[in-house]
Amino acid sequence: MPKKKWFWNDITDATLRSASGGYDPTVRGRSQEIADRIGVPRWAVNRRAAALGLSRPKDRPWSAQEEAYLEANFHHSSAKTLARKLGRSPTAVKLKAKRLGLRKYDEGYTASSLAEALGVDPHWVLARIRSGKLRASHRHTERTPGQGGDSWLITDEALVDYLAAHPYDLDLRKVDSLWFMDLIAPYLQRSATGGRRAQAA
Fold first, then answer.
1. At what angle do helices 79-86 and 64-73 cross, to 10 degrees?
2. Residue 39 burial (10 A CB sphere; 0-12, 13-18, 19+)
3. Secondary structure letter of residue 109 according to DSSP
4. What b/e string do you get for 48-77 counting C-beta neighbours within 10 Å, with b at 16 or more?
5. 81 φψ region: left (φ > 0), alpha (ψ -120 to 50), beta (else)
6. For the residues of 149-190, what is the DSSP string, one character each?
């Protein structure tokens, strides 16, 4: 049975955006509290919060000690292990590592980690993979169907190609800005270099 559609207005959106009692993914039970107040299911609140760019909490600043720990352990520890040690999400660890220029062989994004970086729901990413718009390959893990099946691997190149082909498909206001600039900078430099060579020829 399809989920019922819920319609939002300026008043209900203001409730989610409120500085006092508004949507906050770091506060346990807050989404259910808002759902009860407005009279909608909790999933509807979470989906609307994601659409408004409210679903991703802002990471606290990284200390010099945390950066040093990440640099020293990134190549021999998983993102999940580092996340537990640092008290951050695995995606936050991956994004910070990318900003520091730390890379691993065959590194890419899962649908969930890419969704967090883009400020969208994982289903948004999966829909574009299934439609063929966003190239992705399976990681060939041992995850069973009961565990959600094999996870996806999405590379920087595949993501940049998608963004170039569908520039208006994403709300850049929700995107992690520093990560996004790091993502596209090499391709912008390559494009500029190619343009200068063409002019010289």
1. 150
2. exposed
3. B
4. bbbbbebbbeeeeebeeebeebbeeebeeb
5. alpha
6. SSPEEB-HHHHHHHHHH-TTSS-GGGS-HHHHHHHHHHHHHH
CA distance 16 to 95: 27
Q: What is the predicted pLDDT for the residue at 130? A: 94
Residue whose C-alpha is closest to residue 161's, from 172, 169, 150: 169
Per-residue pLDDT tens digits for 7-40: 788 888 888 777 667 787 767 788 888 889 888 8
- Within 13 Å, how many C-alpha atoms sit on residue 184's CB side? 15
Helices (H), ranges, 39-155: 42-51, 64-73, 79-86, 90-99, 111-118, 122-130
Tell me the pLDDT tens digit for each residue of 118-144.
888 889 999 999 999 999 988 766 666
- Which letter does DSSP use for residue 146 in this model? G
61: its two tokens? 């600043």
0.70 surpassed by pTM = no
Residue with tokens 């390559």: 190
